[in-house]
Each structure stands twice: as structure tokens, then as C-alpha cells.
């Protein structure tokens, strides 16, 4: 897990033509997307189409990602971040829990940018697998350069599920996806690009990475 410092990020919404600042507290994020071997160790399942231990797990829904976070937390003796009710109801997030969770959209963008201000944290072909260089297939994690904070594959390879609802007024329970994937054109692999999907949706270019809240300082 990589320590991500606190900061501030500006989020925007194309439909409402609005933008707003979000203060991000320090947290920790997995250096890579969750791999197929890691997912299998925790869940006993290998849902991905293209098989390979070092490939990002894909074909996983938002619900699958949430359940993985809770399962990994229990495995490591941590307090699960989510109280799961049913697939028809959104889980409750215990913000005081020390277990694993999905990043918020603001956390994801802040971590991706790593104190940069452009559309990407480096030249696209050097940092991301996308339509122009992936050869039409998913690639092992860590094959491109990381950003300044040591996070790999923040752009390209697989989209990352985030915790947030995309736009409840229009899309209901659809959740945010960030980062772009191996089959996407260059314009999708930018720090600010947002995509959305139903939390039960599974496809071969969507995976996830995990975070943990930084512990509160002792009094």
C-alpha cells in the first residue's frame, strides 16, 4: 500500500456544468490494481476472461469489489468498512473502520494526479496500456511507469470502480469508473475522465484497486 498525502482536487460534472473543490485526507492505496492471483487468494474465484496471475482482475462488479474489500479486511483482522445489506440496497460505509475499501472519486483523482495538473501524469505511451499500444488485450500490472507517488496503472489497462454514485438524479445507483482501459482511445485515459455503470455490471476492461483510511493521530 502506498501512502497518499492530503490535498485538494477539483471535480466537475458535464451535465450540470458545475465543478467543486474537495479536500482529501491522507490515505493508503494499493500500488497496483487488484490482480487475479490476489483476488483468487481472498475469494477463491477467478472471474476474468483472460487468465494470468499478474493480470488485473476484471469481469468484477462494483458489488464484487466491495465484498472483496470486506473479505480481505476480515482475513487480516481489520474492521470491515462496509455493512452489506443486499444487492438491492447500497451498503453502509463505516468511515471509522480500519479495513479496506474502494477509493472515493476525489481520492482516486488526487492519487492519479500526484500533484500534476495536466491531463496525465506522464506521456501516455509511457504510463498506460490503451488501444494504441495494448495489442488488443489486457496486460500484466506494473508494465508501465508509475506516477510520482509510486502508483501504477492509474491510467489504462482496466477502469477502476470508485465508491461514489455517478449522478443519482439521472442514473440512479450507477457508480463511478475512472482511469480508462486497454481497449479505449487516448482521450479516455485522462485523470479527469469519468465513466459510469450499474453496480452489478461486469466486463473485461473493468477492475478495481483498494484503499485504507490513514489512522487518526494519537492524542
Automatic annotation (TrEMBL):
Residues 17-211 form the Sulfatase-modifying factor enzyme-like domain. InterPro entries: CTDL_fold (IPR016187), Sulfatase_Mod_Factor_Kinase (IPR051043), SUMF_dom (IPR005532), SUMF_sf (IPR042095). PANTHER family: FORMYLGLYCINE-GENERATING ENZYME (PTHR23150:SF19), SULFATASE MODIFYING FACTOR 1, 2 (PTHR23150). This is Formylglycine-generating enzyme family protein. It comes from Streptomyces meridianus.
Amino acid at each position: 500500500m502506498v501512502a497518499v498525502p492530503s490535498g485538494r482536487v477539483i471535480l466537475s460534472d458535464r451535465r450540470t456544468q458545475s465543478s467543486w473543490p474537495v479536500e482529501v485526507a491522507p490515505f493508503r492505496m494499493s500500488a497496483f490494481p487488484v490482480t487475479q492471483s490476489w483476488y483468487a487468494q481472498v475469494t477463491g474465484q477467478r472471474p476474468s476472461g483472460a487468465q494470468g496471475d499478474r493480470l488485473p482482475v476484471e469481469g468484477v462488479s462494483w458489488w464484487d469489489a466491495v465484498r472483496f474489500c470486506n473479505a480481505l479486511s476480515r482475513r487480516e483482522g481489520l474492521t470491515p468498512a462496509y455493512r452489506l445489506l443486499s444487492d438491492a440496497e447500497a451498503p453502509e460505509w463505516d468511515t471509522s473502520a480500519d479495513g479496506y475499501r474502494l477509493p472515493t472519486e476525489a481520492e482516486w483523482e488526487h492519487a492519479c494526479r500526484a500533484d500534476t495538473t495536466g491531463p496525465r501524469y506522464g506521456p501516455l505511451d509511457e504510463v498506460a496500456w490503451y488501444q494504441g499500444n495494448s495489442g488488443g488485450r489486457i496486460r500484466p500490472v506494473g508494465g508501465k511507469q508509475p506516477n510520482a507517488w509510486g502508483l501504477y496503472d492509474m491510467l489504462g489497462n482496466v477502469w477502476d470502480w470508485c465508491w461514489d454514485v455517478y449522478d443519482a438524479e439521472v442514473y440512479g445507483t450507477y457508480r463511478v469508473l475512472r482511469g480508462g482501459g486497454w481497449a479505449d482511445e487516448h482521450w479516455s485515459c485522462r485523470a479527469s475522465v469519468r465513466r459510469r455503470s450499474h453496480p452489478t455490471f461486469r466486463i473485461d476492461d473493468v477492475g478495481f484497486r483498494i484503499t485504507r483510511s490513514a489512522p487518526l493521530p494519537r492524542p
